[in-house]
Design a protein that fits this description.
Length: 377
């Protein structure tokens, strides 16, 4: 609740108090007679006093904001609040009788009205001080609540900014790594005297880079776009490796429209080629699978390479050390991105299953969107 809203609330409280005084006075008049109850303007003075309290409440709340009782400066500010409270209570007790006297002539003289105000000031100062302190306390409480909410909001924004900055840094790290490996493939063709194939591969690389830049502007893309990107990358690798690289694609039609992060498949297939196929003396196979399982999307990239030393076949979670140990920057960045984007709802595992090395990712299944239009599955 902001101080302005708090002031409105306090004003409503004072309004209710005035209604109560009027209702109580009317009831007493009927029971014991008007002369005995309202003689001397007692009811009028009560109403005027409550109106003065209502008018002063926003100012008291404002003073709580401007003079907060912090640990370093609590004593001088407490003295300032004490002086303000004393001055206001004195004004309140003098103004009430004087206003009533001027309007209704309830006292013999103006001086008599002032003397009545001083008597009330001395006799009721402690009660008025309690009321003033209560309003001041409400103001300090509301200010503390507002500061805490602002702090929580700022901390939440900072966490979001840090997460976004880390994701951006991971993506910027991933893209040069991908580009270096693609250029390395072109360099290998040139060194082996396959200039025509190298020239063709450079053209494919240009198309691939344009696709990468297109996906970079979106937080999520359709799985079919990732499949096309991975196909383009593997086409470059196949030019370099020839018959040594055999590819199998098993992407279910109902999974093609699933939303996935950009550059999800490319690091996985790159890992399969670099750490699987290239380590074989003969031809190697890479299998890419994707299927929907209820509310989950499962993506797998498998290769029949020799695997990594020390891999025991145990399935790990998103933080599986095997993924980063064998796949380097690509798999480690993929793991970090998935953790940031999906938290506990994602799972990434790397395991040795028979003669195959399998990297599997599970994500919540939802249909990707292009602008405001959904991509059909």
């Amino acid at each position: 609740m902001r101080p302005s809203r708090a002031a409105v609330g306090m004003l409503l409280v004072w309004g209710a108090a005035i209604v109560f005084v009027v209702a109580q006075s009317s009831l007493l008049v009927r029971l014991v007679g008007a002369q005995r109850i309202v003689g001397g303007g007692a009811v009028a003075e009560q109403i005027v006093t409550l109106l003065l309290w209502a008018a002063a409440t926003p100012g008291i709340l404002w003073s709580a904001r401007r003079l907060p009782l912090t640990r370093r400066r609590w004593l001088p500010r407490l003295a300032a609040h004490g002086a303000l409270a004393t001055g206001f209570i004195l004004f309140l007790n003098l103004a009430g009788p004087v206003i009533v006297h001027v309007v209704w002539g309830t006292h013999a003289t103006f001086g008599a009205a002032l003397r009545r105000g001083m008597v009330e000031f001395v006799g009721l100062f402690h009660l008025a001080l309690v009321v003033y302190a209560f309003i001041l306390g409400v103001g300090h409480y509301l200010e503390a609540v507002e500061a805490r909410r602002a702090g929580e909001l700022g901390a939440e924004r900072l966490r979001a900014d840090l997460a976004e900055a880390r994701l951006r840094a991971i993506r910027l790290q991933l893209q040069p790594h991908f580009l270096f490996n693609a250029l390395n493939a072109v360099g290998s063709l040139i060194l082996t005297g396959r200039s025509a194939e190298a020239f063709e591969t450079v053209g494919q690389l240009g198309e691939l880079l344009r696709a990468v830049l297109a996906t970079d502007r979106r937080a999520e893309v359709a799985l079919r776009e990732e499949v096309e990107l991975a196909r383009a990358y593997l086409a470059i690798e196949q030019v370099r490796l020839g018959d040594r690289l055999r590819l199998t694609w098993e992407v279910a039609p109902d999974a093609a429209g699933a939303a996935v992060p950009p550059m999800l498949l490319q690091p996985l297939v790159e890992n399969a080629v670099r750490h699987g196929v290239e380590r074989r003396a003969d031809a190697g196979r890479v299998v890419v699978r994707a299927a929907r399982a209820g509310a989950r999307l499962r993506v797998e990239v498998c290769d029949d390479g020799p695997g990594t030393n020390g891999m025991d076949g145990a399935n790990g979670g998103a933080g599986d050390g095997n993924a980063s140990a064998s796949g380097g920057i690509g798999l480690e960045n993929t793991r970090l991105r998935l953790e940031h984007l999906y938290g506990a709802e994602q799972r990434m595992e790397m395991a040795r299953v028979g003669e195959w090395t399998r990297v599997a990712i599970e994500l919540p299944f939802r249909i990707a969107k292009t602008g405001d239009l959904e991509v059909a599955a």
